[in-house]
Each structure stands twice: as C-alpha cells, then as structure tokens.
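Feature request disguised as a bug report, sorry. It would help if multi-protein outputs had a clear separator. Right now it looks like this:
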Amino acid sequence: MNEQISDYDLIKLFNKNKLFDLFNMTVLEVDTKIGNIKVEFDVDKKFCNPAGDVQGGIVSGMVDDATALAFIFQNHFKKRPPTIELKTNFLYPTKPGKVIGYGHVVKSGKNIVFLEGRLEQNNRTVVTATSTCCLLYTSPSPRDRQKCRMPSS
C-alpha cells in the first residue's frame, strides 16, 4: 500500500472491509504519525451474559482490535502485531450499544511492539488495556514465522 495515502483515505478504504462486522466496528479517526486511532463499536445484546453485561472475552477482543489497528494503520498495513500478552482491566460493566475504542502505539522496536488502549461508553472509561506484540510483516517471511513460532504454510 502506498505510504503517501492520507489518513482519511485509509479510513475510507478500511471501513469498506466487512471483516470487523462482528462488533459492528467503524474507524472514526486515525493519526498515523503518532499512532493513534479512534473506533466505534455497536455491540449487539447477543454478546451479553445473563446479567446483561457484554462478556469479558468479547470486550477484550474489542480493545485488542483497537490497539492493533493503531499499529496497523501507522504502518500503512505493511506490518501487523500478533498479540503476545494482553492485560485487560475491567473498570465498569460494558453494556450493549455504542462503545468508543482508542488505540495508541507506545513503542515499536525491531521485533516487539507495545500498545495501549481503552474503551469508553457514555463518556466513561469502562476498560483499559496494554499489550505486548510481535512485529510481523503482512506477508510473513520464514524468519518472521520462526520469530513468533508461526507454523509454515
């Protein structure tokens, strides 16, 4: 992908993708220079536990998407960050409906990437997260597969 493409055009291109329909996710804003992203989720009640809260694994997946996409957009889809570790803090229950997600690239090294993110609902932070990721190119080389112990195709 051309690195000269604008942040706005990256958002338009990405939002045409149906891959993230599971959480009804839309990218709202991105700043590829500093590695920030803002996304919106519209979470269906089918993802709720019997208490009416969105199940924790779903919420973890949402914040993981937000953090990873900050890195992916920053690198114009040439690199991706498979998660090695995700630390999720559940501050308040997340309810079905609109949720805003934020992702930020803290540091990107030669092999490891550090990301952070949060989810907000009704102007309140409901989840925070940090993640450590392995840095891979979108078409992993044999060296990249070995680095993250990925199976050969």
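(second protein starts here, but nothing in the output says so)
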Amino acid sequence: MSSFNYLTNDPGLHLACDDGSLIHPARWQGSHALFILSSPTKSFWLLSRRHSQSSPCEERGVLIGDITFYAVRGAHRLTSHLTFPEITGWASSEGDDARWTEGRAHLELEDALRKGTGMLSIEVCSTGPYHLERESSQLSRMSEAELSLPHIQ
C-alpha cells in the first residue's frame, strides 16, 4: 500500500481561550486572520499546524507580525510576542516585526482589554507548506495528556 504525502499552505490557525473554547477565524482579509472574541478573556493559545524548516527539531508554526485588538474604545496593538524573549510557544525572534510560533503559542491580553469583547486581527506573514500525512500520524501517536491544553490562570 503506497502512502501519499499531501501538502497544504493552510495553517489551520485557531485560538484556544482560557475557558477552553476554540475560535476559528471569522474570515481572512489578505494575510490577516480575523477572530471574533464574544466574551472577555485573559489569555489564549494561538494554535496552528507545524512544519520543519531544516530539521524535525526546529518545527515552526506560523510567522506572526502585527496583532491588533479592535474594541469599542478603539484599536490596541499587542506587542508582547515581539518584545518579550521568553514566551511559551514562541521561537526565538528573527527581527523586530515578526516572530515564529512553535505551533502552540501563548498570548495574554493587557489588563485594559481583558474585560471587553471585540475583534482580534492576527497578521500571518509566512506559513508552511505543511505535511498532512505527517500531521495525522503525529496526532495519532500523541497521548491525551499531550493534546490537552494546560489550564490558564
């Protein structure tokens, strides 16, 4: 039986909120994924497929640039993924305007934004390609503990 190696450039981008809910993009506008945050949240995980640039030890998710939260009181640019070197799920920085995720990256909203609802715009500067066959075999080998997200406090 032969196996096929399917490729996709779809990053499978979605958010996992601190209450356990998953949010998929409401739409894409160019390279920006737009998410509707209908309930207040403190933080979330940015989840995507992963691909290997040069070796399996250096798997990357998506290259993220601008992140902006649009609320009733205006637009607020989030920069923690660009300015803090040690954030769970983010690879080392490659510049001042974008950073790779490792497929599961943590982001916290600033205190002023945690109480509101709005739209989150995430600029995706670069993606895969992603191997779909490899993705399905990786998921089948993972235990339930590896697939579950830690509780965010």
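Even a blank line would do. Unrelated, but nice: The mean pLDDT is 78.
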